[in-house]
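Table S2 (text version). Query chain:
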Amino acid sequence: TVAIIAEESNPALRFIPQCEGVEFLVGNDGDVLAKDPKILDTEAFIYIVPGSVEALSAAWKTARNPKWVHSFYTGIDALSGFSQESLMKGQTLTNAKGAYSPSLAEWVMTSCLYFNKQIQRCQANREQKVWDKFVMDTLYGKTIGFVGYGHIAQTSAKLAKAFGMRVLALRKNDNKETPFADMVFKMEERSKMLSECDFVVCSLPATPSTANFLGQDEFRAMPSNSVLISIGRGVAIDEIALDQALEQKSIAGAALDVFREEPLPANSPLWRHDNVLLTAHNADFTGDYCMRGWDVWKANWEAFKAGNAFVTPVAHPSEGY
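Corresponding structure-token output:
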């Protein structure tokens, strides 16, 4: 039995794969799950946001020998408390690392092109029937810097290199492999890296150490013609400082798919800026979104059954990445 903790209406449940010999137990009520006799022998769990973490904890504690919980999405911030309180040595948390990187990378490049090619200006010209033969810029030779250099950033960097861009990477562990990066910076060197960027891509997860990671000082370090692209977690961006930077034109613009509060409140000042490309945390919400998530789970399931190493283990569950 594999226990799935999710709201009954979650669309991912419509795509549960057929796995020989596997029975899926779906629920979102801790009391109900804990009383189900099948939970006692359940070793594998799946958590799908915004399911009840309390229900997961109750089911996990009831199971005799729980071994593995899989986060259906890449971000594991919802499970930080569970990881600290319930995950013991020998128990594993995996996530959907890599499932949504291609679509997010496309969105990163779309954002670069949106500002680089002045798409907003092109649209306005069409609407106003203006023949405006302005000088068209190129991405070739421009510098793109990644704040955080995990799978999403590396997938984006691969596309950026295809455009002939220079790639910089800022990462916590600068000893890890950094494919596609022309230069790697340590976290304490963030201002130096930012000062060299035409585009800054933030894909940081939500952890205590990443809260407001990009704020007033960082925006001041960025060139006035640079653009911020945010695709990780909204808490990594100081939105008050960003609003001021956009208002004062100390940076050229921002492409934002994630926010501190979602849905973004109607009274957020971020809505008012003409130099902002804004999407509703749907940069990775593609037609095959759920299937891609299940594909990663299945790869981990096959490894689990065979007694092999998991495909997407979370290295530091209690720290949120």
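Notes on Table S2: DSSP finds ten helices and twelve strands in the chain. Residues 289-306 form the longest helix (18 residues).
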